Amino acid sequence: MLQTMREHARGVFGWLIIGSIIAVMAVFGFGALNFFVVSEPAVATVGDGRITQSEYAAELERQRQQLAASLGENFDPALLEQLGIPDRVLDALINRELLSAAAAAADLAAPGGELDAIITNMAQFQGDLGFDEDRFRFALQSIGMTPAGFRAAMGSDLMVEQLSSGIGNTSFVTDAELRALATVLLQSRDIAWLRLAPSEFEASVTVDETALAAFFEARQVAYAAPAMVRVEALRLDRLDYEAEVQIAEEAVLAAYEREKAAFEGQEQRQAAHILIAETDDRDRAAAQALAESLLAQLEEGAAFADLAETYSDDPGSAMDGGNLGAAGRGTFVGPFEDALFSMSPGELRGPVETEFGFHLIRLDDVFTTELPSFDELVFSLRERLLAEEVERRFQEAKGKLEVLAYEAPDLEEPAAALGVTIETPEPFSRDGGEGIFATAPVREAAFSAEVREEGYNSAVLEPRDGVALVLRVVEEIPARDRSLDEVRDEVTAEFIAEAAQEKALEAAQSVLQELAEGTSIFELAAAEGREWVRQDGLLRTDTDLPPALREAAFRLPAPTAEELRRLDRVALPSGEQLVLILTDVRAGNFDALTDEQKALLRAQLGQRAQGVDFTAFRAALARDFPVKRTRANLESDN
């Protein structure tokens, strides 16, 4: 932040801007900043709906965080563009908006009780005592969402799930389609192949100086020494503070007393319900009549779970016998909650009308949460206090480092004040150095104009969790061409490898030619000093073979009476060449499958049919709800 201010708040004009903001805030308060806010532009519109820049930015940031977490130190922000993630994020948001619009048009709704129960039972929001509101809000803040926004997104996703399920349930597979698919998917093939590895030809490659020089000159740019920087750095590591922090027993006891004082046992109610909602074919009166009919059946001894599974319009709980789990006050909508918390265990009540329809409610159990004993919490309390104190010291040191690095002309004073040693890693290029100096934030900072050209200390960088780093460039090493003698070993190795691959290719082509001319595979193998590898009954699902070989085997046409074998050449990513022979093809036999295998095949074909139907449905939606992308707003957001 300080580095940014230093960059932009120079000169009279910069100070006038800051002065004007301070003046406005002094008179009107922080809310006055809203005077500067205009209606947020949209990156895309879907019918009457809008996808705003902030929605797009929040989703893009979530994707960035996931990619950074999965790649760790190897994460590079440039990967976002290379993998096409910005476009994929926008496509996903447009698809969700299309499906949400269709769900709304179909009068689908997410039952509030189910939605709240889902959220309060999500594992990432649980603390020692169940749902933790602070953890919930912190988790949402970290991804740029509010509780209301998260609930709305969850509701939208639930409606889309209902819509997807409805479309999927209309797809079906005929027996004829199933048998036809089985003949192809369960097809088996007999193949053989000859392997020619480049390593076998390396010894026969002659390294001629003239050819080597020409090879080097054609690729000299690739062998050039890149521009590099030599840096000094100060590093703070959270782990260093763990060793110096000790948590006294008195502090743990005091933390437990605070927990005890703040704890209020909350009454929890375990319940189940059956929801009867209004639909296109059922008005309010019909819904109420059906609910009353089901209540009568329950009172006569009908199984609640069976009726819930058959009749309930709450898809989330219906398949679990209507079970809603345990929940406290504030979880369900008003009329439902009022009824639930006035019931006794074992009681059945209804119909209770809410905005979602008519509910039949069964209360199964009532219990109150209790604070665990000190012995049960002592470990987690100690760990929490340790983490809090370590984090406090780490953040305090990081704040001092930011100020000192901003004010100092070099790193000597910050190092002395914080008691850390200045690191002097080996010079590195834009591609990175060793360890933490290979991470994207460090590389970007080291080669930024402010640090590399203007000589400033960098801002505080966080190349990985729990590590803070400040660096400065002490030497620039310009890019230069290297001579052949400097990289002779590397060039020679690549020259031999490329020539050996060419020889392997030529040998494979020669084998194919001889086979095409009628040479026996046994004669050819003997002459080459090689052995054919044979596999009969190869299936599409076999994973023991290289994918390229398996795909080529199933791409070849079946042998005929006129052409008893089919030939092909397969190049593997390693540079190896395979000469492939296909000798027989057998159609899959549906009748030979077990009932379980037939059911699995039907399910697979059903999923494929659902995918086709859903793709067609999505295309139709795009006609009903026109999509318009605003490229200018998208680029300005990036």
- Give the fraction of residues assigned to helices: 40-55%
Strand fraction equals 15-25%
Helix vs. strand class: alpha+beta
Query: Radius of gyration, rounded?
Result: 34 Å
Number of strands: 17
Low-pLDDT parts are 1-38
Rough outline: flat
Chain-averaged pLDDT: 84
N-to-C terminal Cα separation, in Å? 20 Å
Number of helices: 25
Describe the main β-sheet briefly.
Answer: 4 strands, antiparallel
Tell me the strand order in the biggest sheet.
Answer: 14-5-16-15
Give a verbal description of the structure:
The protein is α+β, with helices and mostly antiparallel strands. The chain has 25 helices and 17 strands. The strands form 5 sheets. The protein has a 4-stranded antiparallel sheet with strand order 14-5-16-15. The protein has a 4-stranded antiparallel sheet with strand order 11-6-13-12. The chain has a 4-stranded antiparallel sheet with strand order 8-7-10-9, sandwiched between helices. The protein is flat, with a radius of gyration of 34 Å. The two termini are 20 Å apart. Residues 1-38 have low confidence and may be disordered.
